[in-house]
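Retry 2 of 3 after timeout on previous attempt. Resubmitting structure tokens to design endpoint.
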């Protein structure tokens, strides 16, 4: 039994005339008659009663007609759903993200991507960079937004967004009155930073910036979230080197200043498994690429 045969039968059942059914199907009558005969042969019972005057449905044909219509409807639905999935308009997508991503335009990109695809079930999970790599390998998420790190074999990665690091300091700090701050001016300050095990590459990049400026930072306070970093700095616990987007955190007593004489970027990368969910991930990467250009300007 073939879907084509079902479509042929439904046309005949509705027209009750082989000639009209053939015209409706845009085929000649002989292949239509042949396929109906093959269908009845495969079923082992007659669907139609033919005479020189009329074509009628048998009792079995009436029941078979109803079920054939249901099968064809499901087939059309499957074809439509498959096409939407192939175009990245439907399916499911589990996304991991580091908290810092929510302060960048990446958050609005994800929201827009979700809203524009009513047939897509998108879920998001806050995980640090290490946890995301593990979740990707275990197939617990499909796409990760994380800080740069070593990407294991079998995973693909692409830079999504980059922006400069800036200095966060209390509004009462003597350096807060400057338009720009040189890193070396912070050599005697207490620093607030992520613990290294939480995000090794991010941690090491900031340490390397300070070492390049001629000092090793005194990291006295370690926290997991940029919002907590900003809160501690505003409360006067110390200073911090953070991505520019952290400036979106509105906290009284907190100031952000560009770093003079250096341009080291904070980056977010996307990571995913090979060709898995390619029809959804490629459109998402394309939309995020637009934000990358804006972030680099």
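Retry 2 succeeded. Sequence:
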């Amino acid at each position: 039994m073939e879907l084509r045969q079902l479509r042929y039968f439904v046309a005949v059942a509705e027209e009750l005339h082989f000639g009209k059914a053939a015209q409706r199907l845009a085929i000649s009558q002989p292949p239509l008659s042949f396929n109906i005969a093959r269908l009845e042969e495969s079923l082992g019972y007659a669907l139609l009663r033919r005479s020189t005057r009329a074509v009628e449905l048998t009792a079995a044909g009436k029941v078979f007609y109803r079920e054939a219509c249901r099968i064809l409807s499901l087939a059309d639905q499957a074809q439509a759903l498959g096409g939407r999935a192939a175009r990245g308009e439907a399916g499911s997508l589990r996304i991991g993200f580091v908290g810092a991503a929510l302060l960048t335009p990446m958050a609005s990109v994800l929201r827009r991507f979700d809203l524009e695809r009513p047939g897509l079930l998108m879920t998001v999970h806050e995980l640090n960079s290490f946890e995301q790599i593990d979740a990707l390998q275990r197939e617990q998420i499909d796409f990760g937004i994380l800080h740069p790190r070593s990407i294991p074999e079998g995973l693909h990665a692409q830079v999504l967004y980059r922006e400069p690091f800036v200095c966060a300091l209390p509004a009462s700090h003597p350096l807060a009155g400057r338009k720009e701050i040189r890193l070396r001016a912070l050599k005697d300050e207490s620093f607030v930073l992520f613990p290294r095990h939480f995000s090794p590459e991010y941690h090491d990049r900031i340490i390397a910036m300070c070492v390049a400026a001629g000092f090793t930072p005194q990291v006295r306070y370690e926290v997991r979230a940029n919002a907590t970093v900003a809160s501690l700095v505003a409360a006067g616990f110390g200073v911090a080197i953070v991505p520019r987007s952290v400036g979106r955190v509105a906290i009284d007593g907190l100031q952000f200043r560009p770093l003079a004489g250096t341009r080291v970027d904070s980056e977010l990368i996307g990571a995913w498994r090979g060709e898995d969910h390619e029809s959804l991930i490629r459109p998402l990467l394309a939309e995020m690429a637009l934000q990358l250009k804006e972030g680099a300007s």
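Attempt log closed. Residues 59-86 form the longest helix (28 residues).
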